[in-house]
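Supplementary Note 3. Input sequence used for the single-chain structure prediction.
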Amino acid sequence: MSNNPNNSDTEWLLELEESAQGTDLYEAPGGQAQMETAKEDIADLSVEGPATTLVGIARIKRRSLGESMRALETSISRATSSDGWAEDVQASIQSVRDAFHEHIMVTEGSKGLLAEIVDLAPRLSGEAVLIEKEHQSLEDALRSLERAMGSEAEAIRRKATVVLGRLTLHRQRGADIVYEAYNVDIATAD
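The predicted structure, written as discrete structure tokens, is reproduced below.
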């Protein structure tokens, strides 16, 4: 497997660099904050040792997933009688689903991080297969949580808490396999 990012990754990296330099084509409200985030993201791509660009991209996606998980935890913790509780929870669930989908796009497939890890360290192939299997199970759990939005608030909270716990364990397993393969703690972005 090549350590070079594919074309869409290359385009994304160029856009990231432009944002970090403040030279992107679109100026919008919050541009300064966007530029600072892009600088942090570029710093995350610079990892020590044999790690690749995929590790840096996975680190960024990991941060995004962690942030969306924290937002979901915050939204389910609010008073259910407060205005917009259900809408906030629904939006947070969607954010977690989107971030998790992006995580899967970086890690799975013949050009994904897990394939690169197995190429580098074949001893980790069993763990990589387990992680990929968890992806489908977690996607199913997130869809089930979304469908539960018509339920009572307490049931939604319990289901969301279980899903967040499973996602946390999955992220821990991912941090372990990356460390085993590259000797890099991907969780430093969190």
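Residues 1-46 form one domain. The chain is about 75% helix and 0% strand.
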